[in-house]
Amino acid sequence: MILKNKKNKKDKNNQKKNNQKQNQQNHQKKDKDKKLNKNKQMKLDKNKSKKSNKKQTPISSIEEKKWQKMLDKRGIHTLLLPIIKGEQNDKNDW
User: Which residue ranges make up each domain of the chain?
Assistant: First the structure.
């Protein structure tokens, strides 16, 4: 009877230890998953911000008129043309 009780206590202690180890491992996995998810989310946010920075909204006609008026007041007579990506405007000498 005494031997059985000792064995039972040892078994219970072993089970508790095993359960604690499993809980620790589960928590570690969850923490790792959270970190990975945060990293992925940060990367996605960075990519979104890069994409949104690349896309420039075209100048509205009101804004274009405003700039043209300001340039005319200063005596700078120019024609505002949008530069399209891929054109070689920068390489031409004026």
Answer: 2-57
Separation of alpha carbons 45 and 56, rounded Å: 18
Query: Cα separations (Å) of 18 from 23, 29, 60, 87?
Result: 9, 16, 68, 68
Which pLDDT tens digits describe the chain residue by residue (94 residues)?
566 676 777 787 888 888 888 888 888 888 888 888 888 888 888 777 766 555 667 778 898 889 888 888 988 877 767 666 665 655 655 5
- What is the rounded CA–CA span in Å between residue 48 and residue 42? 10
pTM over 0.70: no
